[in-house]
Amino acid sequence: MRLTKMHGLGNDFILFADSKGASKDYTDLAIRLCDRRTGIGADGLTILVPSDTCDIRMRIINSDGSEAEMCGNAIRCFAKYAYEHGEITKDTFTIETLAGVMKPSLTIENSVVTQVTVDMGKPFFKAREIPMNVDMDKVIDVDLDVNGEAVTVSSVLLGVPHTEVFIDDITKAPVKTQGPILEKHDAFPANTNVNYVEVVNDHHIKVRTWERGAGATLACGTGSCASAVMACEKGLTGREVDVELYLGILHISYLEDGTVLMTGPAEEVFETELPIE
Ligand SMILES: NC(CCC[C@H](N)C(=O)O)C(=O)O
């Protein structure tokens, strides 16, 4: 099996194509390969499989073996992988995911994909769409009890469920302590990704994420989109926002019609061949 290790701003993935992978169970493979001591190490597997409705289909399996509906950093890596490995010859195409159809546009320099812009679709705000156990049309500034402490959260579905906690200083974000508690809080029947957000000004935010099924990661693409959307909905920023992550910036455009565009890099780290079925 030919594997490609890639990352999007440090959120890292192992990619491969599997023409018979439409409904395969990759749980064990993900846990084995993603282990950072005994495997290759990654936040997830990203698998290219054939699609009946789009140009190609992406499956994303978290490092704990659970399957996610979508992944923003993985889809930029996936789009670059598909083009540079000859699976796709166009610079704009469609990708089927469990969260619907995503549309990447590639910036190509000397046959190398340097940036990818993805039309991520529109966010869903209703509590039952996220899903979340409260009855609200837009889940903005709800107090949740976290071990006796009231934590104010806002939530949105952007491919996957996201919860934002706005804080004054990103260096104090309790990612690894509060993140896992919020991820599995009773309020979220499907669990949630947790983003800590510092608003720097009306076009610049900083984000740190605790990911559902993967833990603390260096960047989260859908989380960056969700954070930018929520900052705008709360009146803290405009519709064009730079999201600062540990290793760089994702640019998010939240268009007037609700469509979210995400632009950022994707990098290949190495390729290898392993004797895996
Ligand atoms: N890394 C992500 C999100 C991956 C999915 C997530 N762990 C989940 O299960 O919801 C991104 O870049 O969007």
From TrEMBL:
The places in or outside the cell where this protein is found are: Cytoplasm
Q: What is the lineage of its organism?
A: Bacteria, Bacillati, Bacillota, Negativicutes, Veillonellales
Query: What does this protein do, in the record's words?
Result: Catalyzes the stereoinversion of LL-2,6-diaminopimelate (L,L-DAP) to meso-diaminopimelate (meso-DAP), a precursor of L-lysine and an essential component of the bacterial peptidoglycan.
Recorded source organism is: Veillonella rodentium
GO-annotated cellular components: cytosol
Pathway given for this chain reads: Amino-acid biosynthesis; L-lysine biosynthesis via DAP pathway; DL-2,6-diaminopimelate from LL-2,6-diaminopimelate: step 1/1
Q: Which GO terms describe its biological process?
A: lysine biosynthetic process via diaminopimelate
What is the recorded name of this protein? Diaminopimelate epimerase
Residues that hold substrate according to the record:
11, 62, 72-73, 193, 211-212, 221-222
> What keywords does the record list, in alphabetical order?
Amino-acid biosynthesis, Cytoplasm, Isomerase, Lysine biosynthesis
